[in-house]
Amino acid sequence: MSNNSAYQKYKVLEPLLLALAMIIGISLGYKINDTEDDFNLIERLDPNASPIGRIEEVLRFIDNKYVDSIDIEDLEDKLITSILDELDPHSVYIPPSELQKINRQMAGNYLGIGIETIAIRDTFYISRILPGSPAEEGGISIGDQILMLNDSIVAGRDYSYQQLSSAITEKDEVFIKVQNQSGKKELKLIPRELKLNSAKEYYKIENQVGYIKIERFTSKSYADFMKALETLVTQDKLDNLIIDLRDNPGGYLPEANKILSQLFKEKDRLLIYTEGEHSKKLEYKTSGKAFFDIENVIVLINEGSASGSEILAGAIQDWDRGLIMGEKSFGKGLVQEQYDLSNGGAIRLTVAKYYTPSGRLIQKSYDQYNRKSNENITENLEVDTATVFKTLIKKRSVVGGGGITPDIELTNDIVWYAETSELIEELKAISFLDFLDQETKFTENNFPLDEEYLEAMLFKLNDKFSASQLARNKKLLEVELNYYLAKLSLGERIAAKVDGQFDHVIQEALRTVKNEKSIVEILN
To answer: How far is CA 195 from CA 100, 220, 245, in A?
Structure first.
């Protein structure tokens, strides 16, 4: 009876024992064969499992099998960056740590307390305070020395601008300790979103000659531009407008197009079109709702002018609406769209190309990205009939194949040497301390500074720089000193006007707009 009972138990357990033996066998075989993939094994056994790609498969192998510990997220970031680098120079990965900052910048904002600083020896001084900012509301003063930020000592240390910025923005509250001649004070400031005006430098050079510099195309650039333009216009008319797009890297395409619409009276004039392999052709046209009558337009560009800047300059040139002056532009004619990722980052992927109204491709070939400054287009491309286009009104010949070539080419007349940046920083430090001493009461009539004052400031640089270094940088130092002291004492708009008096490109543009005959002759 007992034997029969044991047999019955064996019959019941037999399938389980066989199954266990199979599992042990598979496991042993897997351990012996290092090339077997446990994830593939799971996929084969589970028909409902979602298939994974080779990249994810490799990352899983590394994460589970690699001999040393690995930061898999850092590896993923590098892998994504490497993939996008194979596409084009403008398709990029934006990690979570940078995305919010970039989005703010594109929206025309930044997070902060509203201060500018200057480092003098081992101390940061407050050199400018934004009106209506937390710093102004909290009682920060120009000339205050920063002693501490949160729990970190700032003064007397090798502390960088980047560290200073991070300490202000990384927390919801900023505890700042400062001192001046009146003593020390401790403040609690709360950083907030502050607006960046992309067209803050504007002024009348002369009667009926206006100047507006657009630094980049943010989501608020059209509003910034219109506010500046309205200030310059007299009785709904402005005879001459100089738009400075030098070193403007681009930004939002719709903002550039809305600004362009204010420069054309006609409706439905093509300003730019885009198309790509997976993007249908899109055309952007004038609205026909220009609020002011602007007669002559001159656009200033250089190698730092890209994307939206080239769209604006290309449309003006193609329709013979005005003159383009300066240096050949950068040559960025690729449309990017931003896609959010599950890790909080994003990729900015090129989806189309820009073309000017005449059909010129703005994008330069990728092998030109290291080209030397001021090279002629014929030294970079083999110009043939396919790269020569005609403007749409005057039928002038213009060159395509990358970037916008000015109608009047003007190069930078100031040379930078190895010591130039250090010289400028030291000059700013000296002039800032002199400004705090208030030995000179600055008004707009003080500028340009007289030769005696300039020589006195340069004399203070003798201890750190040689006579030859000072001599070859004298012109640039004069320009920088005038601009910096005007900005400290009178604000950015007056400083821009002062700076314009030394800018030979602006001065050449002024001479050109004052001679309307020369504009007509060039456009013919």
So the answer is: 15, 9, 20
